[in-house]
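Sample 1 of the test manifest.
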Amino acid sequence: MLAMQSPELRTPPPQISSDIRAPAGTLALDDRLAQGTVRRLEAKEHVFCEGDPRIHVFRIEDGVVAVYKTLVDGRRQIIDFAYPGDIIGLGVLREHVLSAQTVCKAKVRALSVATLERAAETDANLAIKLYKAVCQELSATRHLLVTVGQRSAVERLASFLLTLHSRAGEQARPTVNLAMRRSDIADLLGLTIETVSRTITKLRTMGVIDIEQGGTTVHLRDIPRLEELASG
Amino acid sequence: MLAMQSPELRTPPPQISSDIRAPAGTLALDDRLAQGTVRRLEAKEHVFCEGDPRIHVFRIEDGVVAVYKTLVDGRRQIIDFAYPGDIIGLGVLREHVLSAQTVCKAKVRALSVATLERAAETDANLAIKLYKAVCQELSATRHLLVTVGQRSAVERLASFLLTLHSRAGEQARPTVNLAMRRSDIADLLGLTIETVSRTITKLRTMGVIDIEQGGTTVHLRDIPRLEELASG
DNA sequence: CGAATGATTGACCCCCTTCAAAAGCGGTGG
DNA sequence: CCACCGCTTTTGAAGGGGGTCAATCATTCG
């Protein structure tokens, strides 16, 4: 226990709340979001923080954003990594209950919550898109919960790499780009950086993955084996 | 690792999918659900199983239902305990991705998914109720994820007891009824039955809780202390 | 009462954490 | 170009929290 990594870089307070992911094909939502303005963010900048008024939701246009919750003593649980196309900040409360911070340089598009909510009140189609988006997010969160609650370190890493592979585009090539630091992976999986590092090394030794240049690019050499290791 | 408790009692296949919780005040939803038929279930009966066609959603009328996911090797992660008023089985897929099993005798009301979806297509108000219900569920799942990913056994149990106290009615009296077995608590919190048992004993020894008759009724003797122990 | 199921308690062990140090990896400037 | 600095990752050694195995106790039900 105690993964404790610093949130750092408390940047100007952008907005919007809880969060959700948009599945492919949410045209109505996409249309609405196309109207928002785009913000360019440096690595480790905050998109929004817990407690901020929820004024916008954001669609990731480029880069990766970590959505997380911190405990009073600094321990941090990353809830999700949001990739291009994903939407963060959805919810029902007036304030954000989570924080969101870029993992690397990123672009996000902001859409007014007030506008979105007003539109959804009369547009059942839009409301359903929102509903499905949250269902998607819920499904992903449950998957992570199962991983963190039941799996060993090797299983967690295997599961994480496979999830990243299917989420972050590039399904064609068996390659995954680890834009995030080890500390981010650790805080997602409920492990420590040391255990993450050791476990990645172990997977490399076992021959299921290969690491490239500074450990940011991972080649999945044996995906079936990786799926076995993830155990379900 | 390896909590592994048997799902048991594979009962006649009722229906409906993913799942969600209804916040107080979802009148449209409540109205619709009032039309469904009520099923009476014994303890440990299944409401639905992973893979079942998603034909109904269920509102808990009485009792407690465990919503869970099992891994191939039998390990089990309980995602949520559903209490009266909660709705389970919401989702976007045609099949259930989770299983739901009663923890004790229970009554659930079934509502047709087809009917609900058709109604939501034209009724923006209903669609929004669904949206808010899933947001609520998402929020609860995230809270559990933080608990399982970051907290120690004592912190998990303290958090669990407090959550139960605020969820399962009875906020007036500092009393919690543990309708579920130790194995259910263990599979919710990512611990083993032995650790759950030992930790409850420890909390009792510390004087923060009291146990009654067969360990099913828990008195929260020092709630502020319990909140400290839950650490956030 | 005896069988079955669940809860508690004990003893031991292992996986992961903790603490610590070394090694990479960029960037910057002399 | 390379030395130096900050940050991250890797690796090592030691310890602990919770898991595993197993026995005892409690409760329920036939």
